[in-house]
Specification:
Length: 351
Amino acid sequence: MNDDEREAARLLEPLRQPEPPATSAVDVDRAMRTGRRTIRVRQVAGTLACVVAVLGIAFTVTVPYYHSPPAEETTSEFGVTTQEFAIGSAGGFTPLTYETGRSRQRATLTTQDGATDAVVTLYPKGRVPRVDGETWKPTGGTAPDVKGGAAVWPSEPVFGDDAVELAWQWRPDAWAFVSVTGPEADQDRAHKVALSVEPGADIDVAVPATYPTPHPGTVQESAVISTLRSIGDHERAERIYQVRYRASGDDSDWITVGVREPAPDTDESTTVDDRPALVEKNKVTFLDGTGLFVEVSDESVLDEPLTDFAARVELKSDLEWSPPPLSPSDMPTSSSETPTDSSTETASPTP
């Protein structure tokens, strides 16, 4: 499993509770093969199109950019501690988590019964993955535009073989994707989710924990790779709020610190700094009611034992964190539901 697949699996982990989710991961190898085929057969260079996959499309066309997306300034990089877009409840979905990052930002959603999931991914200008050094130009059937941006149902799935997917240009040369999986996945749902996306949210995301003694690569904002946190004020079985730091010059070496509730149900606890904790390979989870956990890509990224490092991590005193509700709340389940005001789901940077 590569880094993107592990990230996708991690993002979808909270979607179906209490049972472990059947996660869907980004198949990078398949996407690259699709991109190479697209490059080989493309007859008109420079055609602007949007990408998204939907099952059942029996033809492939290159879709020209027939509307200009909103003419607002679009940067080639997002702020790593800034939430770029808000998203509301639409098509029977409600938001669960939001991941920030410089080269992409992503939200996960689910239906009330947890059977159907959705992932929304926004890329900044010019940052759609490249194949063989060339920008990948999606092809597929024409989809209804998304707020003035041309959209397509790609002829082959990008994020998963069983996904219904939609892609559109949310700004000039900036692409967004919706991927829906599950028994109730359809094009109508995918399009409604896309319509609920509101770029330009600019919500600051606070770092949840601090290190009393600085460790290389863990205290400067420039070392932050991403943040992940629960969003929305609806009830769910689990809440999470974490930040991932670069531990070396490579993003594959990382340290993740955060809070997650409820705590693991285990009889294999020990103590770390006189606090009850679950110690696993590359991960320490405190069982003292704080929800604090520390995880590393490998213990070799630290210059001390993981347990010693974890003992020095402290939650920020002003972090607004509360235990998760125990049961899901009512939410729209019909795909005929229209998008709600997305600001109501993401107005606060707290979980």
